[in-house]
What does this fold into?
Amino acid sequence: MFARTHGGTTLGVDGLVIDVEVDSSAGLPGFDLVGLANTAVRESKERVRTAIRNSRINLQQKKVTVNLAPAGIRKDSAGLDLPIAIALLAAYGIIPAERIERSLFASELSLEGDCRAVQGILPITITAREQGYSSIFVACDNANEALLVDGITVYGIQNLHEAIAFLTGKTSLSPSVPNPTPSVQTVSTDDFADVQGQFQAKRALEIAAAGGHNVLMVGVPGSGKTMLARRVSSILPPLTREEALDITKIYSIAGLLPQNGGLVQTRPFRSPHHTASTTAMIGGGSVPRPGEVTLAHHGVLFLDELPEFSKSTLEVLRQPLEDKKICISRINASIVFPSDIMLVCAMNPCPCGFYGDESPKNECICSPNEIRRYTRKISGPLLDRIDIHIRIPHVAYKDLVSTKNAESSAVIAKRVEAARAIQQDRLAPCSISCNAQMNHAMLKRFCPLSKDAQSMLEMAFHRFHLSARSYDRIIKVARTISDLDTQMEILPRHIAEAIQLRHDAGLSDL
Amino acid sequence: MNNKILGNQGEALAANYLIQHGYAILAQNYRIRSAELDLVVKDGNTVAFVEVKTRRNMHFGSGAEAVNYRKQKKIIQAAQYFLQRWHLEGRPCRFDVIEIYKDTNQLYRIHHLKNAFESH
It folds into this structure.
């Protein structure tokens, strides 16, 4: 007899529905699995058979053929165990075939028949809903994730036996309902209130967060670069539901969602070590998997000790920074991963770390050649994509011991949110959301400069020999500053601050 | 030579055992060029190909263990030939192993393993 049901796997960040067809006939007993299955799927043969036997069902041995369609795509999800088992039981006439025609199954099976959670349930559920499936059966541990999608009935099941009993009509099974989400507002433990002094740096990071600008921090060792960077995500505006779904999808595929975790509520903060390879950074593998730039989607990618990264690892960041997505082409598939990130980098000005430090105690001992070699790693094109460059000085003693409470992240986040709201209203027609994403044409349209501001910028242009690109970037940052200032027009003081944020690092000659 | 006699004894015992349990013998020691089927029997509508292994002791592993991948392939090959030759392709089939242990006081223990393996 023949039976068909549906399973799911993922391709890039999207789900893919797999038709699982099973035929059983007389003849030499055997179990053939066809349809470009990888090892994990091919091994499901043993799991499925044992799980069925341990669910107290004895199947007479027959010639069984399992086909996974579309045949051209490599299947690599252990979640195909359950649909294969269900279709097999239907082919033996144990489960009525019409009960499973419009349902999708996704779970791994244990030898005992228990359902195990698998990766990528959220994208699979979204695709199933789009293609009009009425219900999806997942492991209990995956139910919360599947329930994030409206418009499809989710059944969380404990084991194969439960599914069989329900599908044969022996018992009833009520659809899963969303757990009342634990109302613990995830309070970020990293708060700007902990950072004493560093007012300029904090101001620069506030501007960066408000406009979605990338930041480079240059400073002596121990000045608090890392501490500041870790707090950037605490002042970014709260996630919208779409953004949260995007992030959850990516984390679901990468298998990084916490056990039975629902929606990701916080913006990701990724800080890969500087030994990271190109593949770790942008994603890859024979079946492409997301890398750090994708895992930091809608959040912060923090690169500490920037010059220590290998040159190629840094250069591959160019495309994702420019296009907000990364296209990975491999022999099996060409896949586009999203990578809308805010890049925050930190570095020392020279190998010893004290170049340009004011205090006479810490004199730089590096030769000019060493400094050049150190900073040469960071190419012009990459620096060009970083709107804000700042210098982080030593913390002054009186700031360090000050008991005065520094401004908390919550207060800063309010201002950032207000500035983002202004930008969203203005930029909505261009379907972008923050100032950093504006192109040259949009700059002309949305960034009216007051007369004084214009003449000031002209002066700076000649004085500092600015390139056309730097000119654009200064206007972009000035736009964000004026948004924080809730001004319609860009005023001279905004331009002045923007120029400072560009040249403060002393790296302009690199 | 002793082993061969033991084997033949075992196969005769297995045949008797199967007849007693309601099976009909279709063939015994069915030989093709490279392989042999010890017993081909009918269980209702099902055709069962039975490999018989006789042992005096467990010093060299159990009987069923001896039916390894290579042996299975040979049996499967012979079974395919048998089904074709007698036009039985549509029948349900299975592969059984019968282990027979002969202990010191000349008693036999028979262990019938149904569905021991399947074609790969």
Summary: Chain A has two domains: 2-167, 192-503. Residues 192-503 of chain A form a domain with the Rossmann fold fold (CATH 3.40.50.300). Residues 11 and 248 of chain A are 15 Å apart (CA to CA).
